Amino acid sequence: MKGGWLAAPALLVLACGDSGTATETASASGGQSTGAETSAGTNPTSTSDPSGGTVEATVGSDSNSATMATTVPTTDVSDGTTATTLTTGPGTTATTGPGMTDTGDPQTSSGVVPDTSTGSTGAVDPSAGSTGGSTGEAPPCEPGDGMGMGMVEKSFIWIASYNTNDISKVDTLTMTELARYRTGPAGENPSRTAVSADGRFVVVNNRNTGRSTMIAANEADCIDKNNNGMIDTSQNKNNLLNWDADECVRWSIVHPVAGGTASGPRGVTWTPGEWSYDECKYVNPKVWIGYLAAGNNAHFVRVDGITGMVEQTLIAAGWKGSSYAPYGAALDPQFRPWFSSLRGEFVRVNTDENPATLTRITPPNNVQSYGFTIDEDGNPWFGGCSGPVTVYDQKNQNFTTIVGTQACHRGVTADAKYVWVASNGPCGLVQIDRENRTLIKFHNTNPCSTAIGLSIDVEKNVWLVDQGGFAWKFDPENVPAMQKVVVAGSHYVYSDMTGGQLLSVLPQ
Predict the structure, then answer these.
(1) SS3 sequence, 263-318?
(2) How would you write 86-131 as a 3-class SS string?
């Protein structure tokens, strides 16, 4: 039954405009300039490496416009040599030391190279006997029956602060900021975050440096790299360790971006991995990350979630995204990653095909895509800036704009009943009936600086993060009773900060 989350910690936030650097301009379709991307006082840096990458171990009404969708083979590079990681666990190689490089994301010319890496990102057919359960007996458990998942004991929302180059871990149950972590050595400008299905790990993307960093939520998953018999990690919001000192930072990758903040990685989503009947849980999770490489080519890379190894690269040449990297990402119920753009196209990664392909879709001009999510039925939602909130119906392949929504919309998230959208101009929260696709109400928040990102936690409460250094938590059936949580910093978060979007599309 969809919508009934039983899993552990979660995280969710949606990709939107970048407050960090470089001013955006509206598309030629008539959208006005919003100023959503303004200077944060940080000089963009480029860390593209000729070898390919660096991995550090130290650390309205129905639109009558036609839908244009094309499915094309894409450049597919499968190589197990890219990205190494910090220390992971038994049987892995820990590499340390500055200046370490790898081939990162090889640039190839054309064609499709079959994926030879291990692990599938597609949905698992329980009848096929994915992992284990091969004795001929009935499998001990099925995805969604709750076995092996346990009760919710911990749930976190991860809130990135671009001006301080760190990310906060906030307990959604107690509304307490528990720890804070650096996302890179310096000048990172972190933004989008995504949490694994079991809530154990978070990946945060850094726009200035092209870096993606993975952090473990629980000390049991951290690594004693200095062999002192304990885990050295942040213990509270004021205990921010040096970049190379926090042992809960598992891996960090520097992607070969084109250079400049606009090309840095943004859209990011996890896949749960493969279902193990023997363990009654998903194993071998993957992370999909989008960035912009040289030649205006959007790269979509699949990364081993535990080791940080880049396993596969798909390339969309001539990316239509206002010269920005793929902006947001989310997963559909078939475990296919989708990526949105800034006022441009969006793409589905067909991981259920072998070799994988990309389906590229160009929406009508009025969509003005900014915030992005996918609901439990597999339909993508877009917050337009400036423009309406729009939903793309996968089955009918058409777009519907939500009448009465016209603003600069930022983050978007969806639960079983509602779609929630952060709004600027006016500043506040938009509530939409998901099934009927109608506007329910615009909610004011007091205060409201710049409403940015939205996520849903495991208790099904909604979180609205404000750029002004705070967040709101509320029951979707009692919005006026929302509670404020202070989290210092200037926040620019749009993706799955709690894991809620990922959990919403898993079998329940």
Answers:
(1) HCCCCEEEECCEEECCCCEEECCEEEEEEEECCCEEEEEEEECCCCCEEEEEEECC
(2) CCCCCCCCCCCCCCCEECCCCCCCCCCCCCCCCCCCCCCCHHHCCE
Q: What is the pLDDT of residues 231-266, one digit of tens each?
A: 999 999 999 999 999 999 999 999 999 999 999 999
Classified as helix, coil or strand, 391 is strand
* Domain span including residue 417: 53-123+147-504
Does any domain span residue 349?
yes
Pick from 279, 318, 266: which is nearest to 295 by CA? 318
At 58, the amino acid letter reads: T
Whether the bond into 265 is cis, omega within 30 of 0: no
Q: Give me the helices (H) in 321-453, please.
A: none
Could you report the per-residue pLDDT of 177-228, keeping only the tens digit for each?
999 999 999 999 999 999 999 999 999 999 999 999 999 999 999 999 999 9
Terminal Cα-to-Cα distance of the chain (whole angstroms): 5
Helix (H, G, I), strand (E, B) or coil at 236: coil
Residue 51 in tokens: 């070898």
Nearest-CA neighbor of 5 among 273, 245, 197, 231? Answer: 197
Dihedral through CA 213, CA 214, CA 216, CA 222, nearest 10? Answer: -80
SS3 222: coil
Sequence-ordered list of residues with C-beta below 8 angstroms from that of 45, at least 6 positions apart, any chain? 187, 208, 209
131 vs 125: CA distance, rounded Å: 11
In 134-243, the DSSP E strands lie at: 156-161, 166-171, 176-182, 190-195, 201-206, 211-216
* Strand-pair category, 281-283 with 68-73: unpaired
Residue identified by tokens 């500043």 is 427
In a domain, 23, yes or no: no
Q: For residues 268 and 329, is the Cβ–Cβ distance under 8 A?
A: yes
Inside any domain, residue 355: yes
Tokens coding 352: 């259920």
Quick check: is 15 in a domain? no
* Cβ pair 303, 311 in contact under 8 A: yes
> For the domain that residue 162 is a member of, what is the CATH number?
2.130.10.10
How many folded domains does the chain comprise? 1
Q: Are 235 and 175 in contact (CB under 8 A)?
A: no
- C-alpha to C-alpha distance for 251 and 219, rounded to whole angstroms: 15
Contact assessment for residue 283 and residue 131, using Cβ atoms and an 8 Å cutoff: yes
Backbone angles phi, psi at 262, to 5 degrees: -60, -30
Lowest mean pLDDT among 117-121, 181-185, 297-301, 390-394: 117-121
CA angle 186, 14, 393 (to 5 degrees): 150
This prediction's pTM:
0.79
Q: Answer for the pair 273, 304: CB distance below 8 angstroms, yes or no.
A: no
DSSP 8-class letter at 353: S
Local structure of residue 200 (DSSP, 8 states): S
Whether residue 398 contacts residue 66, with contact meaning beta carbons closer than 8 Å, is answered with: no
Q: Give the CA distances from residue 176 to residues 156, 157, 172, 459, in Å, rounded to whole numbers and listed in that order.
A: 10, 10, 7, 16
